[in-house]
Each structure stands twice: as structure tokens, then as C-alpha cells.
Amino acid sequence: MNESHSIWLAGPIVEEEVEFTLFELCRATGASEEQLALWTAEGALEPQGAGPQAWRFDGPSLCRVRIAQRLTRDLEINAAGIALALDLLDEIDTLRARLRRVQKH
Fold it and tell me: Which Pfam families match (predicted)?
């Protein structure tokens, strides 16, 4: 007899159009408000809004915070280093996308 096993994975799908408040992003990532404010001050995150109570973070900010947390935890990088590392990772993604486009032609 053939048995069929199904595996279901559950997880949030975050689109770029999604917005998080500071509280919601803290809750989704486990980061503190102070940590997010520090990363924002260093330019690692770019929320819309006049101040912390009005900040709105886009969907990709969720991924950036998670990467920042790993870099902080695993490599003990400070906030300025986090901003630089995230910028460099963005640049790598951009270059890879360009390379894929060139290879298709």
C-alpha cells in the first residue's frame, strides 16, 4: 500500500506593500524599540514618518531586521557596521540581478 505524506509549512508572507509600526516590527522580530531606533539612526532602516510613534516600516524591513539581528548576535557587529553590511548586501543583490539579466541575453 502506498502511503502519502503531506508536509505543511506555515509562515508569514510579507510583501513590500505591507507596513509595520515600530511596535509591530518589534513584536514580529523580537527586537527592542531601542535597537530598532539605533539601527534607524545609523541608516540601516528607513521608516516613513516623523518620529518613532509615527514610523511605518515597509515589508523588506522585516528581513533587514532579522539579518541585522543575526549579524549582531553571531558577529557582534555594532550599529554602524550593521548599516554598512546591509548596504553591501543590497549592492550584492543588485549586482547579481544585473548579472542574471546579462546572462539571459
Answer: MerR_2
The string of pLDDT tens digits covering residues 47-101 is 999 999 999 999 999 999 999 999 999 999 999 999 999 999 999 999 999 999 9
Are 45 and 65 a contacting pair, CB within 8 Å? Answer: yes
Locate the domains of the chain by residue range. 19-104
Amino acid code (one letter) for 64: R
Q: What is the pTM of this model?
A: 0.79
Contacts with 26 (C-beta within 8 Å, 6 or more apart), sequence order: 32, 33, 36
Q: Quick: pLDDT tens for 29-45.
A: 999 999 999 999 999 99
